[in-house]
Amino acid sequence: MTLIITGTYNNAVEDHRLKAFCLVVETKSFSKAAEAKFMTQSAMSYLIKNLEDELGVKLLNRQAKIIVPTPAGRLFYKHAKEILNQYKQMENNIYDLVHKIKGPLSIGASPTAATYLLPQVFLNFSQQYPDVQIEVSVSNTESIIEHLLRGSIDVGVVEGIKGKTTLYLKEIAEDEMVIIASDENPLARKNLLTPQDLISQKFIMPEPGSTTREMVDEFLHSSGINPDKIKISMTLGNPELLVRMVQAGMGISFVSKWSVFSAIKEGSIKLLHMYGKKLKRKFYLISPHEEPTTITARTFREFLKEYKFFIPF
What is the sign of the dihedral through the CA atoms of 136, 141, 143 and 148? Predict the structure, then answer.
């Protein structure tokens, strides 16, 4: 998913069409590309058809359930990426020369960071730098790292980096994963849980392969629970929707304390506790190099490093 927060800067129409085409090629899907650009699928299809009609050449084919470029489409994609990169570099060089904080800022953020940590950051940053256009792509950590290494985003904000990485990391906040249940779940009345309590419950789990899912599986292992023995009623990648499913009684779950703060205040969600067990992780600002290449990205990095986050509880 991509969110565009606009100040006074506006992309040209051609820039918009090239970005849309590249997104369809990269996601292999009109629907996914449309979702990322906050457009309807029909609007995305119209943009591409408009390009094909203008060129008089077919650029994309549908094979099975995925979209693949034709030979002409692959050539068009290559040149489109070069044009977009040159356009961006031209702007960056000009703004660097005159020390002006203006232009696009591409950020990749994990769902929890995008939903709970960054909205107020973006508001404050946009108030201070109104000529910056913030483009936020929401995806998992693995995808964000891939986009960083490809150069399609400037910086990332993620949680729980696993293993070694060549990327520059800067810790910006601490997070804790907590176990939650609806206020009507019998476990909500227990002071401390046992491993057997967890095994008896249905779980709503983060997506397989996500950093959060790996952390949860490690936690279960350390508690003497085989993750394969857990009863999973649902798998979700959206932290807000996950909390709502727990509220509805679909099961218990591990979530970031940031995502459950409001529900706990309302009383519809209860925290569950295991003796001596805490699952903590860090939120990181990540970039390919310690010194971002654009003045806008450098400014945002320094802004975020000094930002004082509200601690939920």
Answer: positive
Region label for 251, one of left (φ > 0), alpha (ψ between -120 and 50) or beta (otherwise): left
C-alpha of 260 from chain center:
18
| Architecture per CATH, 11-98 | Orthogonal Bundle (1.10)
Q: Note the pLDDT tens digit of each residue in 74-123.
A: 999 999 988 888 887 787 778 777 777 888 898 999 888 998 899 999 99
C-alpha–C-alpha distance, residues 265 and 239, integer Å: 17
Domain locations along the chain? 11-98, 173-281
Q: What stretch of H or E contains 279?
A: strand 279-287
Bridge partner list, 234 = 204
The residues, any chain, with a CB within 8 Å of residue 53's CB and separated by 6 or more, are none
- Token readout for 289 is 């190099």
Among 150-154, 180-184, 188-192, 217-221, the least confident range = 150-154
Rounded Cα gap, residues 192 and 251, in angstroms: 18
Cut 0.90: pTM above it: no
* Rounded Cα gap, residues 73 and 61, in angstroms: 9
The per-residue pLDDT for range 190-239, each reduced to its tens digit, is 989 988 899 989 999 988 877 888 889 998 998 888 988 889 999 988 88
Backbone angles phi, psi at 154, to 5 degrees: -85, -45
What's the CATH fold of domain 173-281? D-Maltodextrin-Binding Protein; domain 2 (3.40.190)
**Helix spans in 37-105 (H):** 41-55, 71-98
Tokens of 273: 């506790």
